[in-house]
Amino acid sequence: MSQLRGFRIGVTSDRRSEDLIAALQRRGAQVLHAPALRIVPNDQDSSLVRETRAVIAARPDVVLVTTGYGMRRWLEVADAAGLGAELVDVLEEAQVLARGPKAVGAVRAAGLDDADITDADTTSSLVDHVLAQDRPGLRVAVQLHGYTDEVQLARLRDQGARVLSVTPYRWVSPSPDGRLARLIESVSRRELDALTFTSAPAVDAVLDAARLLGRFDAVCAALRDDVLAAAVGPVTAAPLIDAGVRPVQPDRYRMGALIRLVCDHLEQHRVVRLRAGDVELQLRGRCVEVEGRSVVLAPHALALFRTLVASETVVPRSELAASLSGGGDDHALEVAMSRLRRSLGVPGLITTVVKRGYRLNAVRVPAESPASANRFDDLV
């Protein structure tokens, strides 16, 4: 339960963010939450009711369900408007295609026949399935997930389908001068160890906000190097890959699998184990564990320690000073080094090499394999 102690992780999701944050915090992480997009109901539900009436009147041949949440909300609003029974009748007559297990679960919960599920959890795979039937003139209803995917709708129309869209909820971007701005600044300064994404629109929103704040290049550089980018699946990962960032992705596109992956990756690749004589140390994010103590390092001390750990030789004073945020002079370096030594409390761990710099008197210890027995059944 302390697998993530010392690590700072950014969370960009809105819906179900409480589950993700709680799971990370239970494992010892410090979480910085800044929703890149907020999910809000369709304006007063009036437009959704109009769209529902249009679907009932058209009696579509095929219905594409893209999210479980959207399907549930669509049915709830239809019930409240007195259209629930008519909508279910229409859905029972149609071929229902669902994007992933959660959407299938929502269809089943409505008492409908099992929906067909595509191999990939993407809207394009649903459209591929429809187009493969080669039936011109199909009436197709599409439950959208937060924004209009015009590319996929155009593919259907180009093949002669009559397309009806239903938008149970929509995404809105928060102001870039609030929490999201602080998150972007933390990423650009490499003050986070990982950043999680659960939707492609959230990735786009973060990158767009970074451009607006003039931090796009710094954010992408950090995500390629010191800050682990973690995406719940290939659709979410696509905008990151387009930006030159290679995020880690779980084999199963679920939140629990994402958390397992983040835990294991940080444990295996971002924990530095050291031995200095009889003393063992672990650098875990912002925290150094030494002789049963957990020492949270201040930013300057952490920057110095990371620079020393990364080198097997003497580190010049100029390089250490440059590692301090905003750069630093000799005085700032000496103050930060004194605080680092005092915090760690290991005599002889850091040696001053006169007229050259400093050396860390420790050797690396091979990483242990991540604990395969960890269970994440609380998030599926």
Structure, explained:
This protein is an alpha/beta fold and 380 residues long. It has 3 domains: 8-37 and 173-269, Rossmann fold (3-Layer(aba) Sandwich); 40-169, 3-Layer(aba) Sandwich (Rossmann fold), CATH 3.40.50; 278-361, Winged helix-like DNA-binding domain superfamily/Winged helix DNA-binding domain (Arc Repressor Mutant, subunit A, Orthogonal Bundle). The chain is 43% helix and 20% strand. It is built from 15 helices and 19 strands. The strands form 5 sheets. A 5-stranded parallel beta sheet has the order 6-5-4-7-8, sandwiched between helices. A 5-stranded antiparallel beta sheet has the order 15-14-13-12-19. Strands 2-1-10-11 form a 4-stranded parallel beta sheet, sandwiched between helices. Helix 5 links the parallel strand 5 (95-98) and strand 6. Helix 8 crosses helix 10 (216-224). It is elongated, with a radius of gyration of 26 Å. It starts with 7 loop residues before the first strand and ends in a 15-residue tail after the last strand. The model is unreliable at 370-380 (pLDDT under 50).
